Amino acid sequence: MTTMAPTGTPPDAIQLDLRGLKCPLPVLRVRKSLIAARAGTLLVVECTDPMAAIDLPNLVRETGDIIERQGDADGALVFHIRKAA
User: Fold this and answer.
1) How confident is the model at residue 4 (pLDDT cuts 50, 70, 90)?
2) Are 69 and 82 in contact (CB under 8 A)?
3) Could you give all domains of the chain from N- to C-terminal order, each with its CATH number?
4) pLDDT at 54
5) Can 47 be counted among the known catalytic residues?
6) pLDDT by residue (tens digit) across 20-47?
7) Cystine design at 45: which of 3, 52, 71, 79 (Cβ 3.0–4.6 Å)?
8) Residue 1 has pLDDT above 60, yes or no
């Protein structure tokens, strides 16, 4: 589900609320969004699946994109992923 960017997130960022989804859905949704995104686009991903802490960094290594920030907020893992060129 794509939603409006929360306060503190750049207005042009794509917000992905993947809370409640289990492996492999979060990584598949992020991959699909990265394929559709233009270079330089920021994806802000929120998910509750603990496997995302392993799966999303592996996906980004595979695609050549960049995790700019990774952390926890309100019981969810949060990733700021920048689409590479």
Assistant:
1) very low
2) no
3) 18-82 (3.30.110.40)
4) 97
5) no
6) 999 999 999 999 999 999 999 999 999 9
7) 79
8) no
Label residues 6-27 b or e (16+ Cβ within 10 Å = b): eeeeeeebbbbbbeebeeeebb
Residues in Cβ contact with 46 at an 8 Å cutoff, skipping those fewer than 6 apart: 15, 16, 17, 18, 19, 73, 76, 77, 78
- DSSP string over the chain: -EEPPPTTS-TTPEEEE-TT--TTHHHHHHHHHHHHSPTT-EEEEEE--TTHHHHHHHHHHHHT-EEEEEEEETTEEEEEEEPP-
Residue with the two structure tokens 């042009």: 12
Catalytic residue among 23, 28, 51, 67: 23
